[in-house]
Amino acid sequence: MHLAYPAVLAALLFCTGLYGVLARRNAILVLMSVELMLNAVNLNLVAFDVWLRDALHAGQALTLFTIAIAAAEIGIGLAIVLMVYRNRGTSDVDRLRDTAEGHEPGPHAPNGQSAPNHQSEVTA
What we know:
This protein is 69% helix and 0% strand. By secondary structure, it is an all-alpha fold.
């Protein structure tokens, strides 16, 4: 088996996942892109294991551990995304980052009073 075929396929999968992480705004699509990147790594691990004819099959064993960790990551990640969606009403990554940094003050403070509008002065 030529090593170039799975290596090129893994590179294309990884680049597609990287594009998805950098370009997407939806948190679920970002998690799916991370999974695509992990699958590209798994493909490389198995391809190199077969190519090197490893007697212990270390690449395949490491792939099984990676699959288990990816399953736990997607389970916890989806739980976090669902809780954020329930609390904020959106799963837009850019909007969530802006609210975490304090760019969009909420309409009410936690104690029921209206929140002050903190805007920094722009000097020319």
